[in-house]
Structures are given as structure tokens and as C-alpha cells.
């Protein structure tokens, strides 16, 4: 027997349609408190397909479906979380300060499944990764996609292998000492296969978001909508034994309630962490540049905004500053970046826009991160990266940095990120300088697919790209071209870049000054922005990262190296340390240790 429940507060009748062994069975459900309906069906159990019919309408998938083996428009399938195949003992791992690795399951291997991905977990262990951050797995239309248009938030995308395959993946990662984080999207749902609005007031027109009507977090019926989101988060962390969640675009969670959804989520996840006896981390993506996002609950924020209690936050300004210095790109939201002084500011203070004017937004933006005062934020609360799925896939052709930079520049970018005072993150393949693009791809039905393809071409046409230059998201080749080429790891070039990344990560683990998240200990010196010297030195205690960004070899002055012993800990190319300077080839970098702090 299985008990079916569903929230449908406005329905007058709800039936559960069960695909039993001897044919379809329709059972009338009983109304209960708060708009919840219930039915006990003897013929149902694990593996049974079912759907809900509201007031005699077409059967719809369960809003809390754990599995959609027939696609997002088909019936749901009963999954008992207690049956998920976990065997590994796991004490948990805090994501803050660990090396994160962003993975898209559908392009990590040619098969695009969790089971295939397991075969490469030893590669990540060898690299030194601490947490594998899996991009969204909530069921979405078609076989291939990024996952940010998911519509069944409790279900694991069937093309990836479904819930049991995800459990096997998490278990295999834990067996190897790897933590697992999941990217979850609570600010919107995709347009196809989205039936939540038929069941209840999951959406509201009281607020607008970039995706249209907002998720209803503060209107009539919002208590159950909030419960839907928080129960989803707790299920991933509890029943799938995940270590962290990355919350997509939390600035789009518009909530005028007395207690913001993120505050409630933080409270309940903290309690669950205590109950489970292992760390659980919430990492937010936010466009607000406000340290209140990662301020523990109950503490003053410095910005005046209420503390939201997230454990971590993506640091886009660090990416923007680093990328623009390395590539020279200054279009769009990169307009305020591109100078060495800007990069120095972000490495020391995280946010460049910290109450300052943003030309892209046309207004003052953000608030400063207090590095050493009463609020004192640890750098590990901020996630730094040289690229992400967004920064690669949202380019017209999905070209990686390897198409724009030489290997020495790639190595230097890697060094800046991995040796920073923040939590470093790599995008899959970045560790060996992958040359495969990573593009935007979908597999929608014909009409929606046409609109997506035309919209993509139109967007980039406004930036000077012709239609035939922009890969069609609906073309299967667009996904196939985005699959990692694992043979590159074994090439001389790939092996060297991989070894360099591994060396940096290992160095971070054993050098206390590099492992520290103390932002107050970070001091950056650099060449004058108006000169052609183009060098940067990041001092962290006794550690020094020296980067020659110029096109020619040059001697870079190293603060604190005069009258001290200077040891080269790692160098991409020959590094000649003498007196108070180190000479580096063009675009190269080195990590040093001086005999005493400056």
C-alpha cells in the first residue's frame, strides 16, 4: 500500500490515477486540513506510476514527484527514499574553503549519466577537489539541457539515470572522500511541463522577475509554497546525503514577508545539520553585492540589510576583474573592470561595487565587506572562479578561455583563483585547459524550440553575430560539441596544465597562509595601470603570488623579500628570485614563501 498526498487548496475533487498491474485505477482522494488531499491505495508501492486529476481534468504529475521516467508531461513514479542505494559512511564536509568543481552531468561524459560520471571521480580525487558541485538535476523537458528550466523540483532528471543513479553517484563520491553539492533553482520554473499553477497559488503577479511571474513567497497560500521549497532543500540534504546546495539567483526570490525565505531556510538547515551531526552549507548566487547574504543570523550586517545566514556566496566581481585583465574584454557588465587596481580591490575586498557607481546598472551598487572590524567576514564565505557555466555558455559560441589565452595565462588565472583567500571553484575541464566549447543547448518541442533558437540568434545579432555563427540550441550537435574530450588530459599540454592545477591545490592544502580565509591578511601590489609593466603580487602572510601579465619577461618587485630568504614553492616557468624581485617569462607566475612576514 502507498499513501498519496497532494496540496490542491482550490480543487473541489482530486483523484489519484494509478497505473496498477491490472490496468489504470482511479481513486478518489479525501480532503484534509489546509488544502491537502490524501488517499491510501493498496495496489501501489515503489515503482508504481501515478498522476493527479483535479476536478476531472487531465492527469498531471505530482508537484513533489521524485521521478519522471516518462518525461515532464507524463505520470510520476513512486520512490521510497529509504530504498536509495547508500552504503558509504560519511561524516560530511564543509564546503567553505574546500576546492569546488562545477559539473554538468549531461556533458561531463559522452553518455551524460551519473553512472558514467562515477568513472571519472578518481580524476577529481587526484586533482584535489573537495566538493563536486552538480548543476541542476530537477526534471526538465527533453533529454539535454542546462537544467535551469526544471519543472519537477523533487525529481532527478531521468536521462541522467533518475534518483537511484544520483544516489549511486553521491555514494561513490563519499566513498572517495568527495563531498557533493547540488545547484537548485527556486526563483522560477521552466515554461514547458510546468503544472504547479494548476494545483495552487505557487506563483504571483504581485512581483515580477526576469522570468515573468514570481514564485509566491509572501501572498495568500505562500506558507505551503515556502514549505514546498524548504522541504525540497531538506530532502536533498537529508535523503540524498548532500553536503551543500548552491541557490540560483537568490536576488530574484522576491519576498516581503516578515521573515525572508532565505532566513527561514537558513534556520531549518542549521537545525537539520545539528540533527544529522554533519556540516550543511548553503551557497547563494546573488547580484546584490551585499555581505548581508553571508552574515550569520542574529548578527548586524554593516550594510543595514537583514542578515540572511547563507554559508557562502558567489563572487562575480572577482571573476569580472580577473577575466577583463587577462582578456581585455570590457563590454556589457565588464565595463567598470579591466584594470589591475580593480583586480587588486576584489582580491582584497571581494566586491568592487561596494556602494560605488555601477556604469552597467546606472546606479550605486553593493556594500563593502568588512575585512577586520566587528563584522569581520571570512574569505571562505565567498566563492572565486576564473569561469563558470554562465560565463562560458552564455557567450555566443560558448568558447572557453583556452580559445582566448595562452597556456601561461591560463596557468596564471588558475593561480590567482586557487591561492586566493576565498573558496576556489573550477568549471569542469578547466583543470587541463579543455579546448571543447560549452554551449547553450536545449531539447524542447518544435514550437518552443523554434522560439528559443530564434531568440538566441536575435540576441547575439544585436552584438554583431550573424545567425549562422551562433550555434542553434536545438541542434543535437550543439550539445555533442560541448562534451568534454577526456583524451585531452593525456596530451602533453593537458597533462602539464592538470599537473599545475593539482600542484596549486596541494600547495593550498599544506601552506597555512594559503589555506587561510583571513581577508585582512591579503595585500595586493601592482604596476601602475598606465604603464606597460603589467604585474601583480598578492601577499598573504609569508606567501606571495607573483604574476607577470606583460608580453615580455620582466623582474617583478616582491614586497617583504628584501633581506629575507625567498623560496619558490611553485612556478609555471623558470622563476629567478634574487634580492627583492623575481624574474618571470611573459604571462607566467610563481608562488613564493618569504622567510618572515612583511
Give keywords.
single chain, 598 residues, alpha/beta, 8-stranded parallel β-barrel, 5-stranded antiparallel sheet, 15 helices, 29 strands, 25% helix, globular
The DSSP helix count reads 15
Indicate the percent of residues in helices.
25-40%
Beta content: 15-25%
- On the 0-100 scale, what is the average pLDDT? 95
The number of distinct β-strands equals 29
Q: State the distance separating the first and last CA atoms.
A: 70 Å
Largest sheet: 8 strands, parallel, barrel
Give the strand order of the largest sheet, numbering strands 1, 2, ... along the chain.
8-9-12-15-16-17-20-21
Write a brief caption for the model:
The chain is an alpha/beta fold. The strands form 8 sheets. Strands 8-9-12-15-16-17-20-21 form an 8-stranded parallel beta barrel, surrounded by 4 helices. Strands 22-23-24-29-26 form a 5-stranded antiparallel sheet, covered by helices on one side. It has a 4-stranded antiparallel sheet with strand order 3-2-6-7, with no helix packed on it. Helix 11 packs parallel to helix 14.
Description:
The structure is a single chain. The chain is of the alpha/beta class and 598 residues long. The protein contains 15 helices and 29 strands. The strands form eight sheets. It has an eight-stranded parallel barrel with strand order 8-9-12-15-16-17-20-21, surrounded by four helices. The radius of gyration is 25 Å and the shape is globular. It starts with a strand and ends with a strand. The mean pLDDT is 95.
Topology:
Elements lengths: L1 E6 L6 E7 L2 E6 L1 E2 L4 E6 L7 E6 L21 E2 L22 E4 L1 H4 L5 H5 L2 H7 L3 E4 L3 E2 L12 E5 L5 H14 L3 E6 L11 H4 L3 E7 L2 E4 L6 H17 L5 E4 L13 H16 L4 E4 L27 E3 L1 H12 L12 H10 L6 E3 L4 E3 L16 E4 L3 H5 L13 H12 L4 E5 L18 H16 L14 H6 L10 H19 L1 H4 L6 E5 L8 E6 L2 E6 L5 E4 L8 E6 L4 E3 L2 E4 L4 E6 L4
Amino acid at each position: 500500500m502507498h499513501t498519496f498526498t497532494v496540496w490542491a487548496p482550490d480543487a473541489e475533487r482530486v483523484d489519484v490515477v494509478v497505473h496498477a498491474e491490472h490496468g489504470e485505477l482511479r481513486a478518489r482522494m479525501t480532503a484534509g486540513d489546509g488544502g491537502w488531499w490524501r488517499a491510501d491505495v493498496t495496489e501501489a508501492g515503489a515503482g508504481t506510476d501515478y498522476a493527479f486529476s483535479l476536478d476531472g481534468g487531465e492527469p498531471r504529475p505530482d508537484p513533489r514527484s521524485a521521478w519522471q521516467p516518462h518525461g515532464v508531461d507524463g505520470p510520476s513514479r513512486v520512490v521510497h527514499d529509504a530504498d536509495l542505494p547508500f552504503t558509504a559512511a560519511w561524516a560530511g564536509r564543509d564546503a567553505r574553503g574546500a576546492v569546488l568543481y562545477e559539473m554538468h552531468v549531461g556533458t561531463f561524459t559522452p553518455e551524460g549519466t551519473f553512472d558514467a560520471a562515477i568513472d571519472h571521480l578518481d580524476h577529481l580525487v587526484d586533482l584535489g577537489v573537495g566538493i563536486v558541485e552538480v548543476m541542476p538535476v530537477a526534471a526538465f523537458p527533453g533529454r539535454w539541457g542546462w537544467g535551469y528550466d526544471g519543472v519537477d523540483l523533487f525529481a532527478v532528471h531521468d536521462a541522467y539515470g533518475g534518483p537511484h543513479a544520483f544516489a549511486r553517484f553521491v555514494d561513490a563520491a563519499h566513498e572517495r572522500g568527495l563531498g557533493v553539492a547540488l545547484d537548485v533553482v527556486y526563483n522560477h520554473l521552466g515554461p514547458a511541463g510546468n503544472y504547479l499553477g494548476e494545483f495552487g497559488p505557487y506563483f504571483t503577479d504581485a512581483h515580477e522577475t526576469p522570468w515573468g511571474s514570481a514564485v509566491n513567497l509572501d501572498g495568500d497560500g505562500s506558507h505551503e509554497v515556502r514549505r514546498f521549497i524548504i522541504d525540497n532543500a531538506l530532502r536533498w540534504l537529508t535523503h540524498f546525503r548532500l553536503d551543500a546546495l548552491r541557490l540560483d539567483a537568490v536576488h530574484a526570490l522576491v519576498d516581503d514577508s516578515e521573515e525572508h525565505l532565505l532566513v527561514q531556510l537558513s534556520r531549518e538547515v542549521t537545525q537539520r545539520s545539528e540533527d544529522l551531526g554533519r556540516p550543511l552549507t548553503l551557497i547563494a548566487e546573488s547580484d546584490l553585492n551585499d555581505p548581508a547574504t553571508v552574515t550569520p543570523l542574529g548578527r548586524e550586517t554593516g550594510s543595514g540589510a537583514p542578515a540572511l545566514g547563507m554559508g557562502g556566496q558567489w563572487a562575480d566581481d572577482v571573476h569580472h576583474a580577473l577575466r577583463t585583465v587577462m582578456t581585455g574584454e570590457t563590454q556589457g557588465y565588464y565595463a567598470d573592470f579591466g584594470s589591475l587596481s580593480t583586480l587588486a580591490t576584489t582580491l582584497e575586498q571581494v566586491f568592487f561595487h561596494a556602494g560605488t557607481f555601477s556604469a552597467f546598472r546606472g546606479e550605486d551598487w553593493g556594500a563593502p565587506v568588512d575585512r577586520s572590524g566587528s563584522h569581520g567576514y571570512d574569505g571562505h564565505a565567498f566563492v572565486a572562479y576564473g569561469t563558470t557555466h554562465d560565463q562560458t555558455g552564455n557567450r555566443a559560441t560558448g568558447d572557453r578561455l583556452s580559445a582566448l589565452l595562452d597556456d601561461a595565462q591560463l596557468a596564471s588565472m588558475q593561480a590567482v583563483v586557487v591561492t586566493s583567500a576565498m573558496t576556489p571553484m573550477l568549471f569542469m575541464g578547466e583543470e587541463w585547459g579543455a579546448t571543447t566549447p560549452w554551449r547553450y543547448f536545449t531539447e524542447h518541442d518544435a514550437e518552443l524550440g523554434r522560439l528559443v533558437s530564434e531568440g538566441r540568434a536575435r540576441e547575439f545579432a544585436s552584438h554583431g553575430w550573424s545567425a549562422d555563427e551562433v550555434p542553434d540550441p536545438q541542434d543535437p550537435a550543439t550539445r555533442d560539441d560541448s562534451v568534454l574530450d577526456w583524451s585531452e588530459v593525456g596530451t602533453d599540454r593537458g597533462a602539464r596544465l592538470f599537473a599545475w592545477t593539482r600542484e596549486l591545490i596541494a600547495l593550498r592544502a599544506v601552506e597555512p597562509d594559503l589555506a587561510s580565509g583571513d581577508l585582512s591578511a591579503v595585500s595586493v601590489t601592482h604596476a601602475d595601470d598606465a604603464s606597460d609593466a603589467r604585474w601583480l603580487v598578492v601577499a598573504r602572510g609569508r606567501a606571495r603570488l607573483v604574476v607577470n601579465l606583460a608580453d615580455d619577461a620582466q623582474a617583478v618587485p616582491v614586497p617583504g623579500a628584501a633581506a629575507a630568504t625567498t623560496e619558490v614553492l611553485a612556478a609555471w616557468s623558470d622563476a629567478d628570485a634574487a634580492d627583492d624581485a623575481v624574474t618571470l617569462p611573459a604571462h607566467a607566475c610563481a608562488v613564493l614563501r618569504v622567510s618572515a612576514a612583511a
